[in-house]
Amino acid sequence: MARPSFPAFDAELIAAVRNARFIAALTGAGISAESGLATFRGAQTGLWARFDPRELATPSAFARNPKLVWDWYAWRREHVVAAQPNAGHFALAELERRAPDFLLITQNVDGLHQRAGSRKLVELHGNIARVKCSREGTIVERWETLPGEVPRCGQCGAPLRPDVVWFEEMLPEDALVAAEGAARRCDVLLVVGTSAEVYPAAALPALAQRSGARVVEINPTATALSAAADHVLRGASGAMLPALVAALD
After folding, report:
1. How far is CA 148 from the centre of its chain?
2. Torsion of Cα atoms, 170 then 174 then 176 then 177, to 10°
3. What's the pLDDT score for residue 43?
4. Domains in the chain, CATH or no CATH each
5. Which residues are catalytic?
6. In sequence order, which residues have a C-beta less than 8 Å from that of residue 47 and are 6 or more positions away?
7. What's the pLDDT score for residue 142?
8. Which of 53, 63, 200, 213 has the most neighbouring CB atoms within 10 Å?
9. Exposed, middle or buried, 158 (CB in 10 Å: 0-12/13-18/19+)?
10. Judging by beta carbons within 10 Å of its beta carbon (0-12, 13-18, 19+), is residue 123 exposed, middle or buried?
11. Is 44 exposed, middle or buried, given 0-12, 13-18 or 19+ CB atoms closer than 10 A?
């Protein structure tokens, strides 16, 4: 039986990935879009079409109208639960199993990487499935939902909120430190499905290159990173990542 065909990758790229002691991957909304999840700045639908996501995902929006923000995230959570990891997610999980050392750094909040089997990962922007106290920041596992109200923390009574990073907020320090450390230590950094425009995550590829790593961009369209990347794989991550992993055999 003939072996499945895949794109002809640069021999230097294959050698770099195959011989890497530490591989890091930075993923953005593009990989989740291939699972049917709209990008954060993508068009809203239905009842939410008249709202700008950037005006809902802020502490000030939550302070003004916590119920509106809570309901919007509940709507987003339903879409996330219905989505399934795609071939790109599974390929990164397989690469984690093969590499001597590996870290996945994701800007996504949907948890699809974990559902695909990734275990060594850092969530820069949190996870929409988690809920925390808006005052103390502690994760809350169970809460009571009353009609027309935002659930409240059982310890202090403050409204609960999704455990995600909003505009006007800083990234979790431990997540950022881990991501920057991986960028400094890795031999190869895969940059998958991200515009490379949102900082501080957008600074990671340059940090990796300064530290001696090869930066590989995987994206169907050109981005701010394309000109600087050592290798560019122009295509969907769901096609390119499985092909790249297969080419390592």
Report:
1. 32
2. 140
3. 46
4. 1-37+85-125+170-249 (3.40.50.1220), 38-82+128-164 (3.30.1600.10)
5. 125
6. 75
7. 86
8. 213
9. middle
10. buried
11. middle
Q: Describe the crossing of helices 87-98 and 237-247 by its angle, rounded to 10 degrees.
A: 30
The torsion angles phi and psi of 103, rounded to 5 degrees, stand at: -145, 130
End-to-end CA distance of the chain: 17
Q: How far apart are CA 197 and CA 247, in angstroms?
A: 30
Residue 204 confidence (pLDDT) = 98
What totals of helices (H) and strands (E) does the chain contain, helices first?
10, 8
Phi, psi (5° rounding) for residue 105? -110, 115
**pLDDT, position 6:** 54
Q: 42-46, 118-122, 178-182, 207-211: which range is least confident on average? A: 42-46
Query: pLDDT category, 130, cuts 50, 70, 90?
Result: very high
Per-position b or e across 92-110, b if 16+ CB within 10 A of its CB: bbbbbeebeebbbbbbbbb
Label the pairing between strands 188-192 and 214-219. parallel
Q: Mind listing the pLDDT tens digit for each residue in 133-153? A: 999 999 998 888 888 899 999
User: How many Cα neighbours within 13 Å face the side chain of 214?
Assistant: 19
Beta partners for 163?
127
Beta strand ranges found along 111-201 (DSSP E):
121-123, 126-133, 160-164, 188-192
- Share of residues in the chain with pLDDT > 90 (%): 82
